[in-house]
Specification:
A hairpin with a 4-residue loop joins strand 2 and strand 3. The protein is α+β, with helices and mostly antiparallel strands. It has one domain. Helix content is 20%, strand content 29%. The chain is built from one helix and three strands; from the N terminus they run αβββ. The protein has a three-stranded antiparallel sheet, covered by helices on one side.
């Protein structure tokens, strides 16, 4: 889970940049990255499934 507030306007490239630049994590590892916005009723999840990225958005 990514700590803090994330701009929910970010797409796959923006979220991937946060993971690699800010946290120095490997995107292609078997992991699910969760991002929360300022409102507690919204989140995004980013997952690499060996064929491409999956972006889930819940509100």
């Amino acid at each position: 889970m990514v700590c803090g507030h994330t701009d929910m306007r970010c797409g796959i490239d923006g979220l991937a940049g946060i993971i690699t630049n800010k946290y120095n994590l490997d995107l292609f590892n078997d992991a699910l990255f969760l991002f929360c916005g300022r409102k507690k009723d919204r989140f995004k999840a980013l997952y690499w499934d060996k064929d491409g990225f999956i972006l889930l958005y819940k509100r």
